[in-house]
Design brief:
Layout (H helix, E strand, L loop, with lengths): L7 H15 L6 H8 L13 H27 L3 H14 L4 H13 L1 H26 L2 H17 L12 H13 L2
Helix pairs in contact: 1-2, 1-3, 1-5, 3-4, 3-6, 4-6, 5-6, 6-7, 7-8
Length: 183
């Protein structure tokens, strides 16, 4: 009986996990194969080398960090306020990938190609939020301000705690979202 090959997406997911744990230097074919419990020979059936794996990992992250979230929120339908609430829930549900977000951002500080892709994700996030807030407020500058505020709170929420004035971090994040929805 022939052994089944480890699927391509498992190599990519294991690579993303390695990136999250130790940065791009931790993405080694041998260690990923070991983590997957397979030989590294199967890797070369999918990838020409480590650089291709890194590129596909980044493409996967880029899709999941922006496009997939937007698609999910748009599928929830409703008006802009409902979609903003769905977006807030989606972002909170992905909190377990905070380490990966930080790892990609750190990688982008050292690699211009990664920095460009990261900028595309940030622009997609900002543009989507701006569009939703424009629908809510009808004012371009107000929409930009609210989009920047929400995005900043979500992103810095990875780096710091907002506990203040007897409120928890999550309460303050939620309050920020509620206040940005006020017409």
């Amino acid at each position: 009986m022939a052994n089944a090959r480890t699927p391509r997406d498992e190599w990519i997911r294991a690579g993303l996990n390695a990136l999250e744990r130790g940065g791009p230097g931790a993405v080694r074919v041998e260690s990923i194969a070991s983590t997957l419990g397979v030989s590294k020979g199967g890797f070369y059936g999918y990838f020409s080398g480590r650089d291709q794996l890194l590129d596909e990992m980044l493409a996967t992250w880029q899709h999941e960090a922006a496009n997939a979230v937007i698609t999910e929120v748009e599928a929830a339908a409703g008006d802009a306020t409902a979609r903003l609430a769905a977006l807030h829930q989606s972002v909170d549900a992905r909190a377990d990938r905070t380490g990966l977000e930080l790892a990609v951002r750190e990688w982008g500080r050292r690699d211009p190609a990664v920095a460009r892709r990261l900028a595309q994700v940030d622009a997609a996030r900002m543009d989507y939020l701006r569009e939703l807030f424009l629908e809510v407020t009808g004012d371009e500058e107000e929409a930009l301000t609210r989009a920047a505020t929400v995005l900043a709170v979500w992103m810095t929420g990875y780096l710091m705690r907002y506990d203040c004035a007897g409120r928890t971090h999550d309460e303050i994040k939620n309050l920020t979202m509620q206040r940005t929805l006020d017409r």
